[in-house]
Amino acid sequence: MTDPADTKLHLNRDHALHLLREMLRIRRFEERCAELYTEEKIRGFLHLYIGEEAIAVGVMQCLTPEDAVIATYREHGHALARGMPMTTMMAEMYGKQEGCSRGRGGSMHLFYASTRFYGGNAIVGGLLPLAIGLALADKMQGRPRVTACFFGEGAAAEGEFHESLNLAALWQLPVLFVCENNLYAMGTALERSESETHIFRKAQGYRIESESVDGMDVIAIEVAARRAAAAVRAGAGPRFLECLTYRFRAHSMFDAQLYRDKAEVEAWKEKGPVLRFGHWLEETGMLDAAGRARIEAGIEEELTAAIAFAESGTWEPVEDLTRDVYTEPRA
Amino acid sequence: MSAEPIETTYREAVREAIRDAIQRDPRVFLMGEDVGRYGGCYAVSKGLYDEFGPERIRDTPLSESGFTGAGIGAAMGGMRPIVEIMTVNFSLLALDQIVNNAATIRHMSGGQLNVPVVIRMACGAGRQLAAQHSHSLESWYASIPGIKVVAPATLEDARGMLWTALEDPDPVLIFEHVMLYNRTGRLSPDTGPVPIEGAAVRRAGDDLTLITYGGSLYKTLEAAETLAAEGVSAEVIDLRSLRPLDDAAIMASVGKTHRAVIVDEGWRTGSLAAEVSARIMEQAFWDLDAPVGRVCSAEVPIPYPKHLEDAALPQVPAILAAAKAALGR
Fold first, then answer.
1. Domain residue extents for chain B
2. Which of A39, A319, B98, B286 is the most buried (most CB within 10 A)?
3. Which CATH number, 3.40.50.970, 3.40.30.10, 1.10.150.20, 3.30.1380.10, labels domain B6-187?
4. May I ask the CATH architecture of the domain B200-326?
5. Exposed, middle or buried: residue B36 (CB in 10 Å: 0-12, 13-18, 19+)?
6. pLDDT in tens, B149-160
């Protein structure tokens, strides 16, 4: 396995297959979640990351266990790629107390302190100041860590985005900003909401070194993220990656997708990260049908176990309703 | 053995509390607009920048949401930040961070994460600062589960609540009424931490309970003094903590006096006074000999001219009138 803190990507077969497997884990997990939603096992909002998997997987390769990760409400992929067990995660999707957040959060609020995974934040832009604080704490305590902050391009319209970028640059904080630009803030197309549609240029306005990356290419993302994370870790201040991507599914399960053409969706699917990387692996001889089947079977097994875990999970007793609003005093 | 009390101001008591916290705990730092070189908009942190430097007395841009959120994030990252927001009116720009993050993260994460941040802000009227610098919105915050809200009114509380708040694993908001900063009194230099929960009886009495907090405490005590001269023994309760409210202390007093008036600089509608009144009705209705009275601010954005500002706020004559109404006089 490649060292997360390595500046350069060393792409051998094992690592390449690891990337594919990680993307497929997210894809299959979410496809199953959509079915479970229809079966009313999962309720509330369900925002699928399908089509954007390369970003979480690519960036996560460059983070050490000590680094911090904070993400939006479309965070199933980030949580899985960061190492949250699928069992714990599926139980959370169900709202069971065996879930990562004891069922209190659900799909939008996956937290996992043991991997420094800080959610699961459902106010667009609201997580950026938290990333600033996490990075500030690391800097003040002299820890060479990275805080990876994932958000959508919609956040760029929020004041908190601008306040946070300014603070990160002003205080030279170790934040890796990862903008997942999927072109739509829910149903509002980027060109209908932003005067400057290249989000990385906004970051440049705060004198943050920024670049635009093909968000459908897991290798391109890992290469860019390695470079950026290494600079951040070395104390060079924040870095900003704009990853150009596309959401294949609806914004949430309530979205009829009246705002975009089916042809546009289909065209992006042709460029899909799993499809494209899979083809490349086949062309280079790193993956054959049997190898692919083994990967899929492994994921299916993991998923089956996760669903069984969630199904057999328990509901938190109603008597515990007000638990964890405040820290209970120690006896 | 307590050190000899010295003459000090509320402002100095808060400053000493900050200095003490920074000296005691390397994780503590102060962050906010003009807290450093300027010395704090109410001069609370004057001198601390020179003493502790720009890392621990951290000036911020005018980004209330950004730096309040940064305080919340830094708290999750192992620091003990004190975030200063100039006034409660400006805190509305940070409402997202306080309400959607600080108050929720422990719960949303199923108890995995804590947010041990302390957020201090000035509140209240009396300095002719008009309608965007003078409000008392602490009751809004006091309605939110997940945060604790305190309003130190005395020198001891100003000095001692901060340390306890910093020790608390959950977010604590401290409201400092602007008219208290110049108040003087005697305070022992080694005054230690005080609890951030629980009300205090500031004056004992038998005929009537006057319930208040923060900047209204001294007006209420003055009213109680006047009442005493007229033969009425009023008990004055300083809530100190606005969330959680000390129901037991309120009900114990009302159970004794059978009459209650609440003095609150917030607007009457949906006020903290309304909440306290409702609780008395729920828990001590049969002890009451008269309807619960309220003295609140007039339902108007705080006006600039002195005579109108005074008229908008709870004042001693209104407290006396409400007390007499409760007494049937």
1. 6-187, 200-326
2. B98
3. 3.40.50.970
4. 3-Layer(aba) Sandwich (3.40)
5. buried
6. 999 999 999 999
Nearest to B170 among A118, A126, A326 (CB): A326
Domain span at A260: 13-310
Q: Which residues contact B321 (CB under 8 A, 6 or more apart)?
A: none
Give the distance from residue B61's alpha carbon to the nearest chain A alpha carbon, in angstroms. 8
Q: For the segment A287-306, what is each residue's pLDDT rounded down to a tens digit?
A: 999 999 999 999 999 999 99
Q: Please indicate, yes or no, if residue A189 is contained in any of the structural domains.
A: yes
What is the per-residue burial (b if ≥16 Cβ within 10 Å, else e) of A159-193? ebbbbbbbbbbebebbbbbbbbbbbbbeeeebeee
pLDDT in tens, A85-109: 999 999 999 999 999 999 999 999 9
What's residue A9's pLDDT? Answer: 83
Report the CATH number at residue A294.
Answer: 3.40.50.970
How confident is the model at residue B329, as a pLDDT?
86
Q: Measure in Å the smallest separation between the Cα of A86 and chain B Cα atoms.
A: 17
Task: List the single residue in B55, B65, B105 with the smallest CB-CB distance to A129.
Answer: B65
pLDDT band with cut points at 50, 70 and 90 for residue A330: low
ipTM over 0.90: yes
If you compute the radius of gyration of chain A from its CA atoms, what whole number of angstroms results?
19
CA dihedral (A70, A72, A73, A78) positive or negative:
negative
Structure tokens at B1: 């053995």
Assess whether B177 carries a catalytic annotation: no
Q: Which of B12, B16, B33, B64 is catalytic?
A: B64
